[in-house]
Amino acid sequence: MPETADPRDRFGQVDLRAELIEALLGLPMGMRSVVVLYYLHDLDVRQIADVLDISPSAVRSQLARGLAKLRDSVSGAQAPHTPSAAFGGTK
To answer: Is the pLDDT score of 39 beyond 50?
Structure first.
């Protein structure tokens, strides 16, 4: 017999998404752009560097810092390993 989903899980995901969106909006614009392009638009580091006219090392640095800030901002036990996991993405 298949296990039925607990409807309370959906509310937890909604809360996490709202918290993640708020944390994303709190990032500096450049850092937020890198995180959004990488995790939500699935661009690779080189593509982001070309779009934003910055070096690939700057993309990697902003991505690492942005992800660390997001992890710090989102409540610990609920935080997904990557931001796109909360949005249903693949990265």
So the answer is: yes
